[in-house]
């Protein structure tokens, strides 16, 4: 700690008060409530839930409020709280084919069984500031409600599966339990279950940069968005005392299936391969970036040359987590007096030696 700071513990405690004052802002302005954050900053809430690995909009909104809108700090708060929670059980694998869809698009097929559902999106906005939002209490025009498809909607990847044009990914007999990143240390090479867990909790900015790099030629990748889905999925658990599955509620998720061409190998014919992304809430950019990087990280198993950063497991997975990266960067704010003094003394001695050598050279 900063032992030389005047006031010691008193100064530190006072910094807490200053932080609370800055977080609250002008007391004449109404305080932002957790429910307001949940309703009006929902995309921030969804990101914090995804990277914080806790599906709880209220807690995510609380973390955003406490961190004064710093999403990386909010993710840290939520992840830290998560570490205190007991593990009560495991859900059954999600069946996203049964998703109650609010939005569903495909860039690969124009006409889909079930149709394209635009839903809520910034995609078709002009990206111009809407100054009418400066007015408080302004009315929001009501959108006409499209009928929600209550039944299963066929997935695009299922259409390709029918022609055997897409790699199969069915669980094999004796398939091991998925890797648990929260309870097992990460080892390389990592299997796909570990990679997907890592990418799901990865910092969105880092993941977006890695995904962008694959599109600029730093990977053998030419992707198409097979399908993006946003909606709610029912989750099931199997309590030990019952022995059969029961519904535990619904979660909102975004799923992305990215399709990539594959030239084939000695053991596999030419076909399409896939990258997969899934995130809590409405998180399309995160799910798309995750799917692109997931496909890039499969280079080794598909027999492709590993030459780009996005294809390197250790590089991507070791630097993707915002908690670790933020911690390593921000630890530089802590006192390094002894280290700096030793380097300062070393540089002084090196300069003295350099001056002596320079004088000798001039003399000759």
Question: How large a portion of the residues is in β-strands, by DSSP E?
Answer: 5-15%
| Cα radius of gyration in angstroms | 26 Å
Helix content: 25-40%
Summing up helix and strand content along with how strands pair, one would put the structural category as alpha+beta
Query: Shape from CA axes?
Result: globular
Task: Summarize the helix and strand pattern as letters.
Answer: HHHHHEHHHEEEHHHH
Number of helix segments?
A: 12
Distance between the amino and carboxyl termini: 52 Å
Which residues form runs of ≥5 with pLDDT under 50? none
Please give the largest β-sheet: 4 strands, antiparallel
Rounded mean pLDDT is 87
Oligomer: single chain
Using DSSP, what is the number of strands?
A: 4
Total of domains: 3
> What spatial order of strands do you see in the largest sheet?
1-2-3-4
Topology:
Elements: H1 9-24, H2 34-40, H3 42-52, H4 57-66, H5 71-82, E1 100-105, H6 156-162, H7 192-200, H8 204-215, E2 223-237, E3 246-262, E4 271-280, H9 284-296, H10 313-319, H11 322-330, H12 337-363
Antiparallel strand pairs: 1-2, 2-3, 3-4
Helix pairs in contact: 2-4, 3-4, 3-5, 4-5, 7-9, 8-9
């Amino acid at each position: 700690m900063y032992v030389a700071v005047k006031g010691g513990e008193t100064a530190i405690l006072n910094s807490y008060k200053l932080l609370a004052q800055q977080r609250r802002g002008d007391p004449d302005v109404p305080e932002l409530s957790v429910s307001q954050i949940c309703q009006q900053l929902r995309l921030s809430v969804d990101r914090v839930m995804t990277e914080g690995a806790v599906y709880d909009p209220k807690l995510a909104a609380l973390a955003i409020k406490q961190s004064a809108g710093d999403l990386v700090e909010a993710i840290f708060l939520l992840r830290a709280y998560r570490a205190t929670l007991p593990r009560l059980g495991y859900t059954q694998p999600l069946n996203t084919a049964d998703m109650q869809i609010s939005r569903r698009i495909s860039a690969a097929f124009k006409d889909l069984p079930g149709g394209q559902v635009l839903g809520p999106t910034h995609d078709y906005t002009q990206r111009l500031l809407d100054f009418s939002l400066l007015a408080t209490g302004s009315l929001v025009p009501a959108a006409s409600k499209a009928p929600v498809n209550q039944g299963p909607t066929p997935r695009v990847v299922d259409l390709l599966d029918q022609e055997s044009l897409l790699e199969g990914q069915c669980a094999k007999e004796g398939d091991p339990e998925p890797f648990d990143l929260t309870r097992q240390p990460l080892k390389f090479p990592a299997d796909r279950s570990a990679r997907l867990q890592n990418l799901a909790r990865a910092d969105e900015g880092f993941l977006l940069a890695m995904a962008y790099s694959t599109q600029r030629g730093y990977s053998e990748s030419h992707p198409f968005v097979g399908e993006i889905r946003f909606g709610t999925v029912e989750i099931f658990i199997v309590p030990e005392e019952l022995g059969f599955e029961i519904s535990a509620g619904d979660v909102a998720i975004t799923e992305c299936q990215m399709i990539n061409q594959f030239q084939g190998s000695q053991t596999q014919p030419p076909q399409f391969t896939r990258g997969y992304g899934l995130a809590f809430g409405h998180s399309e950019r995160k799910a798309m970036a995750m799917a692109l990087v997931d496909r890039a990280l499969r280079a080794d198993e598909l027999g492709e040359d590993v030459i780009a950063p996005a294809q390197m497991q250790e590089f991507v997975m070791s630097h993707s987590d915002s908690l670790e990266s933020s911690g390593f960067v921000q630890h530089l704010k802590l006192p390094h007096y002894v280290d700096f003094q030793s380097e300062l003394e070393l540089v002084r001695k090196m300069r003295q030696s350099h001056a002596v050598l320079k004088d000798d050279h001039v003399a000759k």
